[in-house]
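Input/output pair, single chain:
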Amino acid sequence: MRRMVLDADAAYLAVKARDARFDGRLFVGVTSTGIYCRPVCRVRTPRRENCRFFETHAQAEAAAFRPCLKCRPEIAPGLSAMDSSRQLADAAARRIEHAVHAGQPIALPQLAARLGVTDRHLRRIFQAEHGVSPHAYLNTQRLLLAKQLLTDTALPVTQVALASGFGSLRRFNAAFAEHYRLAPSALRSTQANARRPPVLLRLAYRPPYDHAALLSFYAARQLAGVELVEGLELRRTLGWLHEGQRVHGWIACRFVPERHEVQVQAAPALAPVLGAVLQAVRHALDLDADPARIDPVLASVPGPACPGIRLPGAVDGFELAVRVILGQQVTVKAARTLAERLIQRFGTPVQTPWPALHHIFPDAATLAAASADSIGELGIVRQRVHALQALAAEVASGRLSLHRAAPLDETLAALRALPGIGPWSAQLIAMRALAWPDAWPAADIGLMNALGTRDPREVEARAEPWRPWRAYALMKLWRAQENAG
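Output:
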């Protein structure tokens, strides 16, 4: 098992202080109750001799502890792409989590082959890094997703079982009883369910979190008909592929700063893909970031201090890539105008609770099948049309995936091989669609202006001290430029 970041005494101090900075990086198992909690749990602090400390949910559950029903470990923030010291084990964990939440089957031997190692080597590295086997990690992810859906939604238990990757209700009930010593229905309160929307999920993050800066970024780029920022809430329409069919709906993500949480409301039509939606929201709002690691590195980046700065991700990697292509060599406003024309011509109408949100961004299959002339008529130059359709064809065929669990090097190479996608575009797509925290588009004009140079080599050299968080440095520099303007 890998060495704990904190020793037991330091971990206990974090638990006593209910320190939210350690949320998701530390779990405490209480031997007198058999329950494990987040360090922010509001129950009475357990006695030191009754505490055991773990770095992951899976380690706690492998030690026969079951999750707390009050602090709910399943909503704790996860780990970003740079948290693991062993990139292979980290990549495997991200792919397991993605498959579980996306409702996709995953076979561990095929996962090992995809990562270029033997099944035995993957199991050995994974055990050393994460403290449990890949199979135990997979089972924990399924159970925690099921627990969240049972607690936060009114979905039928059978639908929860299938959405969390269990092939049958019998297997689901057996796994739940074995690990949590509860029946799934025990997590539900009829009175509580009657008072809340059908789908209202909670996701936690580690403070500090500069939600004003993130929401301002989205507001400046929101697309009419698709996105809307209002107060502490980001709303948008969303389309998702499920069992070969597109499901259409909407989500509303509201920050609750006093709880260090985001509340996510989703359209009932998205119920079959809620696991995937939750992962997409985590990514879009960068809820897994660890400011305690990032902010000290950013102290040397020019500009005012901005604790808790986040990377704006993407709920739909294809949509983000299209918007990056449309933004080549034009202003943010011009790129937004082109994207809105694309939505009006090729988007899908959808009903939402808000009149301002009425269309789904066009999917890859639609743009791949459209004629080049019909796209060009929108004012998009021929080179961009060619790039958009080449990208759409690769995504629609399944040859290219744009999400945080996609392999970074292979995806970057595939993007650069497409016509009209150069280093600048590939880096921005990697930053926002693949959640790569070290992305660095050295030729970006705003970045060059912020650093006072037009030499990309100097831009690269200046950023060396900011690794592996250069994408966060970029966000800080962009923000300083916007504020100065």
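The domain at 200-281 is CATH 3.30.310.20 (TATA-Binding Protein). Residues 327 and 335 are 5 Å apart (CA to CA).
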